[in-house]
Amino acid sequence: MSWNILIVDDSMVVRAVVHKALKLADIPIGELHQAGDGQEALAILENNRVDLIFSDLMMPVMDGEEFLNVLHDKGLIDEIPVVVISSAVGTERMIRLQRLGAKGFIHKPFTPEQIGEVVNKVMGVNAS
What is the pLDDT of residue 86? Predict the structure, then answer.
């Protein structure tokens, strides 16, 4: 089984690094979608099936927390797991994001192993 993944980050370089880390972690990718902010991500979600979202927090137009708020309000957060990838996640913010429905957190910089562990946990895969 492969997963359709959406990477939301205003940096094309970070999106490429996340994609490469997913491949190095042997995560089965079906379609890969990319967005530069939450607003672009919402447009992608309207027309595509997505199984997993990686989202940065610090972005222009619609930041990651606003994006999670919209997903929460639309009920999508229960259908699509969101993993926050950021260097700007303090304890209070992490609790707030968990309440909005974030299923995992990865701090920048990260390794492919960290990506793999979080994906397996969030997607309910037993790593053997």
Answer: 86
Residue 32 domain-assigned (yes or no): yes
What b/e sequence results for 75-114 when a residue is b if at least 16 CB atoms lie within 10 Å of its CB, and e otherwise?
A: ebbeebbbbbbbeebeeeeeeebeebbbbbebeeeeebee
User: pTM for this structure?
Assistant: 0.93
Q: How far apart are CA 3 and CA 27, in angstroms?
A: 8
In the predicted model, what is the mean pLDDT of residues 1-10?
95
Instruction: Give the model's pLDDT for residue 127.
Output: 55
Q: Look at 87 and 128; give whichever has higher pLDDT.
A: 87
Q: Is the residue at 77 inside a domain?
A: no
CATH (domain of 115)? 3.40.50.2300
- 82's enclosing H/E stretch is strand 82-86
- Residues forming beta bridges with residue 83, ordered by sequence position: 54, 104
In a domain, 127, yes or no: no
User: CA-CA distance, 43 to 17, in Å (whole number)?
Assistant: 23
